Amino acid sequence: MKVEPLLYGDRKVYTVAAFNRGVASWLQRLPTIWVEGEVTELRRQAAWQTVFFTLKDPDGGACLRAAMPRSQFDALRLDLRNGERVHVYGRPELWEQKAELRLRALSIERFGIGEHLAALERLKAQLAAEGLFAEERKRPLPRLPRRIGLVTGNDAAAKRDVLTAIQSRFPPARVLVAETYVQGPRAAAEMVAALEAVCAAPEVDVVVLARGGGSFEDLLPFSDERLVRAVAGCPVPVVTAVGHEQDTPLCDLAADRRASTPSAAGRLVVPDVDELLAGLSRARAGLARGARRTLELHALRLAQRHERLRRAPALLVERRRAALAEAGGRLRALSPRGTLDRGYAIVRRDGELVRSATSVVAGDAIAVEVADGSFGARVE
Description:
By secondary structure, this protein is of the alpha/beta class. The protein folds into four domains: 108 residues, CATH 2.40.50.140; 153 residues, Rossmann fold (3-Layer(aba) Sandwich); 60 residues; 42 residues, no CATH class. It has ten helices and 16 strands. Helix 7 links the parallel strand 11 and strand 12. Helix 4 runs parallel beside helix 8 and helix 5 packs parallel to helix 6. The chain starts with 5 loop residues before the first strand and ends with a strand.
């Protein structure tokens, strides 16, 4: 459609829509070309008909937005990732609605690993060799932290998500928030300083490092060697929640725990107060049952001992009576009276026992004692 100006006297004036349409029509005359760059900000959704990404020049940092129909992109089966270097064949075009220049991609070829991605892979291998990502050095999170440190940007969404999750699960929690740069060339150094300051604060038992989603470039500071080493050397456990679930900056590998989202990080660092109270109730009930069982056991033992003490004197008297009867029986068996009962007699002369036949003579009067009495006799 031909672009027509509005006439105001001798002045030709174009509307914004007409201007954009005119520029777009001029751009359509340009030939298709190959463009080399690193893929960043790759966005592909199943519900979208178009795949969007940005080509970045690794040397000067210049960027060019690009788009490609999803059916064509999927047919290439490249499985592209942010940071990869590609050659894109396409035609420049202008999105008239917002006057945005972009490249309409017709084909994509993988050219090689991008400089940023290659540097990250080298750094990742170096830090892994030093043991910074080893599972055995990761520490458990405290069950009930006295104070929680939160290092984040002024992104209201990420900070709000962490604080909302913490306060909804455990309202008494105390949080120390340190806002800092999380994007750009100053971000890594500023985050290291904020992390050190939060860890030095009194009673901080765990730190959350959080930021919302962003492009591959936006998240590069979270793979900076200084920040990764600071996370690994932090005196308290660190939970990272950076970007979206598919994003994995190097600080995630060095952290003690990695959360997929800021909200998930908030849920990791504090217990659920309702579950905690339910556990306390169960523990209290268990203690009450244990105390009752202990009291009942002691009461039973006390009753048994009381019964034994009550019966002890009678048992003792009975045992002593039996022993006395046994001793009496033995004494009776050994006494002279017992001997008389068996048919023997005791003979006395003048009150003295007659122990020998030679101790008496004929005519002596003697007294004879038998079991049931005594009588007198004369020796013949």
